[in-house]
Amino acid sequence: MKPTLSTALAIGLMLAAGSASALEPACETYLRAAEKSASQPSRHSVTETGGVRLELVMTGGQAWTRFDGGKWQPVKRSGKADPLAAEKQFVAAIRAGQYPISGCRKLGTESMEGRVVTVYAYSVAVPGMPAGGSKAYIGADGLVYGQRSDEAVVRHRYTGVTAPKP
């Protein structure tokens, strides 16, 4: 079964979560990184879930997506269809305490695509989404470069992002 863009975005948003006030320091670190990442003007994200690879490119106020290396398709960036706005809203809802985050802890450092990242573990409770722990890979610049859960692996790149050729 091929996941829809909304399913893939929901998984990505779940991985991009944070939480409400008075957070454990590791949860606050992660939430700040999710907020900073959601505010970047350009991003190329690759999500692998259920044997499917979904790519999302956002740059220059436009977005494109493709499944399994297929043809790039434009994504309407307005209302609920705007993946960046949806991510910002989700992170804000986490900050407001609508979705609890717990179990945040720093696991150590790793190398990811030539970049040293700090790995954080956390769990987020989102109704209708599978429960379970996730990991975030945060660079020294405070951006989330990767995420992992039982359901998906996501990698993000913020520099050198260009609009795909149709």
CATH architecture: Clam
Tell me the domain tally.
Answer: 1
Mean pLDDT level: 84
Tell me the span between the first and last alpha carbons.
25 Å
Strand order of the largest sheet: 4-3-2-1-9-8-7-6-5
Report the top-level CATH class: Mainly Beta
The count of β-strands is: 9
* Global morphology: globular
Helix tally equals 3
Percent of residues in beta strands:
35-45%
Low-pLDDT runs of 5+ residues are 5-21
Description:
With 166 residues, this protein is of the alpha+beta class. It has a single domain, classed as Clam (outer membrane lipoprotein receptor (LolB), chain A). 23% of the residues lie in helices and 39% in strands. The chain has a 9-stranded antiparallel sheet with strand order 4-3-2-1-9-8-7-6-5.
Task: Give a quick precis of the structure.
This protein has 166 residues and is an alpha+beta fold. It has a single domain, classed as Clam (outer membrane lipoprotein receptor (LolB), chain A), CATH 2.50.20.
What keywords describe this structure?
9 strands; globular; 3 helices; single chain; 166 residues; 39% strand; 23% helix; nine-stranded antiparallel beta sheet; alpha+beta; outer membrane lipoprotein receptor (LolB), chain A
